[in-house]
Amino acid sequence: MEKEAGVSELGLKRELGLMDAVSIEIGAMVGAGIFALTGVAIGISGSAVPIAFIVAALPMIFAVLPLGMLGAALPTVGGSFRYPSRIFSPFWGFIGVWGIMMGILLGGLPLYAYTFADYLQVLFPFLPRVGIAVIALTFFFVINLLGIKAAAKVQVAMFFILIAALFTYICGGIPNIDPSNLTPLFPKGVGSVAIAAGFLFFAYMGANYIIDLGAEIKDAGRTIPRSFAVAIPMVIVLYTLIGLVAVGAVPWEISANQPLSISAGKFLSSPLAIFFTVGGGLLAMATTLNATYMFGSRYILALADDEVVPRTLGAVNKKYGTPHWGLLVMYLISLAALPLGASSLEILGVTASIGSIVLLIPILIASYLLPRMMPDVYQKAPFRLGGPWVWLLPSLAILFGIFFILALGVQNLYGFAIFVAWMVIGVIYYHARNRYLKARRGINLNDILKKGIRGHVSCMPLKKTS
């Protein structure tokens, strides 16, 4: 229930409109997939990378409709945790968020910071890579401390420059596409497309994080589904065209494991190549860094509100309306994770991608259960799925996700080992925290299931999961 006009849950301010939501989603997506991981994906699949982008989009297409239904029915803060934790299992809600926090802290934020540094070094090769990465993480940490409206204004401004840079690359590259560069279509085998798609799926994941800002979005029940309808198709087209240019305008061997600025320099004039590097590569990383701080800190806020982590981490600054301790935790852990990507970005891409997939699975299960567990809420939702789509779309998205996790595990066993270790630590932590709260406070984390979302009371689950 809102305390006052413009103020929603936990003291957060409801200030974001449709343009803000779309720019945040596209800013979160257009970053890793295009500028950080395209080169890695080309190294894996060669000239088939445009197909890999399309394959990577399929599970997100299946997922956004169920996610849009949840966001429309129950707009809230940290929805990625609150939906599964209220609808069927606090434990699995935590596991999903724990997985994405691995993706963010041990993958996403360091990956974006390093890629930002790589693009800046194209212009200023004498600058230290690690130093640039540290400055990038620090700058956007500070921006997000100053309030979500300030962060959103920066996001919208960067968004328009970013789109202009992307179209510069596409328009300059398409006339230079040589069909001979696209043959053979599968130089590394058909199976390589699946592995590359597993990496690139992480790029599309940026859109779904908007459900975690539901408490800060005006008319969220309608704005969230509409923002998906605008952002997802736009990004699929952009990704596919840029992938096509990256392997069609130059031989794919030139683009493999390289920033896109390398291929851009082959067909763009020097001023346009510089604009693409700055307005494209640098701002793509900047928008994604900015958006990732927004989403990740809201996960911590939601966990702290339910005491899954200490309540101190959920403190919201009275002046700026931002979760300062949650942001600080993200900043410090991502700094500590920088050495993981010192020699290769692939390990960061694996942890980021797997963590993103793990997050989706409990949310999709919650979307399937929503009509049965909260029928009144489902019926009143401005947007909802019906018939077989309620179970078919989440099922297809989950199956694709599991397949991608296995493909990534085969590609990089070290990254998969980090994922397993992180999840084991999460399981141990959750049960230890539950025992601590029972002994000291008489609180059981399973009681989270009985809490409502914005005044709605969840039904008891069909079967308890601990």
The rounded distance between the terminal residues' Cα atoms is 29 Å
Q: What form results from the Cα inertia axes?
A: globular
CATH architecture: Up-down Bundle
Question: What top-tier CATH class fits best?
Answer: Mainly Alpha
Helix content: over 70%
Instruction: Indicate the radius of gyration in whole angstroms.
Output: 21 Å
Spatial strand arrangement across the major sheet: 1-2
Total domains = 1
Share of β-strand residues: under 5%
Q: Segments where pLDDT lies below 50 for 5+ residues?
A: 1-5, 460-466
Look up the CATH topology. Amino acid/polyamine transporter I
Major sheet summary line: 2 strands, antiparallel
- The CATH homologous superfamily corresponds to Amino acid/polyamine transporter I
Q: Which class best fits the helix and strand makeup?
A: mainly alpha
Tally of helical segments = 18
Question: How confident overall, as mean pLDDT?
Answer: 85
Please provide the count of β strands.
2
What's the order of the H and E elements?
A: HHHHHHHHHHHHHHHHHHEE
Description:
With 466 residues, the chain is mainly alpha-helical. The protein is 70% helix and 1% strand. It is built from 18 helices and 2 strands. Helix 3 (38-45) runs antiparallel to helix 9 (191-204) and helix 17 crosses helix 18 (413-441). Residues 1-5 and 460-466 have low confidence and may be disordered.
